[in-house]
């Protein structure tokens, strides 16, 4: 297993972030700084990041129904509550796959599987994310084409993949890209304010009836649907 995958599996960070740690000379193997991305630690090797021994943890992926007011980070300089405050303290070290801002809620994935995080966040995979959006006033469908064509945010074209009305002020919005606070900023560009934003789906994974502030582990079939690998349940045992 390559070094960045080893670190990601230990819950240090995503593979991309682990590459940055390696390049910065912050990783050692048996006391020697290692900047070789192709290095493959053996079972008895001592791998450290910033002098702290790294242990590979069991792979774990959970879905959390994030409430409003919690930030999607492990620590916050403003001392706000974080999504990790909602998890048991003895959990493996997880990191969130993407973010929801403090005022947004709904489906948030947390994992220590760097490969899964890479697949779900890399732009080339175009993993869909679906949201329920509540606006500050009645929606005028004439604005839809502008949002579907796209507007420029942060120097790139931000587009909504699909949207349809589910009430006078409520919409279902699907994104296939991820730009900071994209939905709020796009609706603001057509003179609407988003009063409530709930993520209800990532890829084929839906939030369902998971209570707010609660979490659950993903099933094998759910993991397979996210990674693109077909899950085939084993034969039933006879009783």
Question: TL;DR?
Answer:
This protein is an alpha+beta fold and 239 residues long. The chain has helices at 3-9, 15-23, 114-121, 144-149, 182-189, 220-227, and strands at residues 27-29, 32-33, 47-49, 52-53, 61-66, 95-97, 105-111, 129-135, 151-153, 156-158, 162-165, 170-175, 194-202, 205-206, 215-217.
Can you characterise this structure?
With about 240 residues, the chain is an alpha+beta fold. It has six helices and 15 strands. Strands 5, 6, 7, 8, 11, 12, 13, 14 and 15 form a nine-stranded mixed β-sheet that branches. It has a four-stranded antiparallel β-sheet with strand order 2-1-3-4, with no helix packed on it. A hairpin with a 2-residue loop joins strand 13 and strand 14. The longest helix is centred in the N-terminal third of the chain and has 9 residues. The radius of gyration is 20 Å and the shape is elongated.
């Amino acid at each position: 297993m390559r070094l960045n995958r080893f670190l990601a599996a230990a819950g240090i960070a995503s593979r991309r972030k682990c590459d940055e740690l390696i390049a910065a000379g912050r990783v050692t193997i048996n006391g020697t700084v290692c900047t070789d991305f192709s290095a493959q630690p053996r079972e008895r090797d001592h791998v450290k990041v910033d002098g702290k021994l790294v242990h590979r943890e069991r792979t774990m992926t959970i879905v959390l129904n994030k409430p409003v007011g919690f930030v999607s980070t492990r620590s916050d300089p403003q001392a706000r509550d974080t999504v990790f405050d909602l998890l048991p303290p003895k959990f493996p070290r997880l990191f969130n796959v993407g973010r929801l801002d403090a005022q947004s809620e709904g489906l948030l994935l947390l994992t220590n599987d760097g490969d899964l995080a890479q697949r779900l966040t890399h732009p080339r995979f175009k993993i869909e994310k679906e949201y329920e959006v509540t606006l500050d006033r009645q929606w005028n469908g004439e604005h839809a084409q502008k949002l579907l064509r796209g507007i420029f945010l942060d120097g790139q074209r931000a587009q909504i993949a699909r949207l349809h009305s589910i009430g006078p002020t409520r919409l279902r919005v699907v994104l296939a890209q991820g730009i900071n606070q994209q939905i709020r900023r796009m609706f603001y560009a057509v003179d609407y304010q988003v009063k409530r934003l709930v993520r209800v789906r990532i890829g084929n994974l839906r939030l369902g009836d998971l209570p707010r502030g609660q979490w659950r582990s993903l099933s094998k079939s759910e993991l397979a649907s996210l990674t693109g690998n077909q899950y085939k349940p084993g034969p039933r045992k006879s009783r």
